[in-house]
């Protein structure tokens, strides 16, 4: 029987502890960097015990199947106190600060594939934030509490077959019928979609302006009319099930709307920031791991009577890559600090997401080259990381979407012409 690690037993001792921070005065602004304590170390050890015992021994099998037993893995993580780290204890959370989540995200990179870590993060920090921040007490008890105890698997439904990046243009629609909503439409590229118990679904609930006519709705996926059309065969992240789901007159209670009707677009934009920061933090740890495994390989690989690592081009290149990853790590910690202070992290999280996607491609591609033919196999982490991490520049907002957000926050994104200006332009 699974034995609960020490971390769960120390949760109550941590509730009033704060993460110590260093302060540096730069241009009269205070920048703090996240630091970690022995309690964070205990969380890391707990997470790694589960990874080494209950996940990594089965990764090759799950990758081949294209799915892993999410309910089973989630229950073990939740029993260890690793779900709901920052959430309200009233709903099976632990009430700790975000630095403990940072430690958790980093340790998930020790899983020998990207799909399982992605699935876990979709559940903890992509599907649940809006429910945590805006959901009613009734909704939280019905869906959040069992999600944090590992009894439910959650997914988030935004992208549709007609497009993923233009969130405002989604077509799924829910009309009110008395005390219920009746939902029709479809969602695409849904991580956890084949196993999830419920979806946090962004759907049109009126015919008003596109940024004010959407709501986030909890949709139980065993409801009549919900069909998992297919599990998508992906080139990477293979062990996470990714599905296309159809909704045909699916009836759910009106009270399943999270927060206020019509505010779903805003809630989802806020939810995206949790998503983008956590994937960047996880990606940095994976890049460090790939670089270290490349160093180990190049030290023992002999070419022309000397270790491969002695080649100046190789050790200089690895030093350069390590330097770039360290810079992104610092940016992530700065964003995490602002998150803990309750500040808007859209700007920093968007930059982190952009750079994580691009840098991971550079790091992993460069490292794979030094493994030669061995790197282009399923036998080594670098080969799997090569195909898994490509999704970072696509999922959760493409690089181009990130650049648009950053440009807008810099005040340099061109404004769309007014309709009157468009008519004038068309006449001329």
Automatic annotation (TrEMBL):
Residues 262-407 form the Acyl-CoA dehydrogenase/oxidase C-terminal domain. Residues 38-151 form the Acyl-CoA dehydrogenase/oxidase N-terminal domain. Residues 155-250 form the Acyl-CoA oxidase/dehydrogenase middle domain. Its cofactor is FAD. Gene3D superfamilies: Acyl-CoA dehydrogenase/oxidase, N-terminal domain, Butyryl-CoA Dehydrogenase, subunit A, domain 2, Butyryl-CoA Dehydrogenase, subunit A, domain 3. It holds the Pfam family Acyl-CoA_dh_M. Keywords: FAD, Flavoprotein, Oxidoreductase. InterPro entries: Acyl-CoA_dehydrogenase, Acyl-CoA_DH_CS, Acyl-CoA_Oxase/DH_mid-dom, Acyl-CoA_Oxase/DH_mid-dom_sf, AcylCo_DH-like_C, AcylCo_DH/oxidase_C, AcylCoA_DH/ox_N, AcylCoA_DH/ox_N_sf. The keyword Flavoprotein applies. Belongs to the acyl-CoA dehydrogenase family. This is Acyl-CoA dehydrogenase 6.
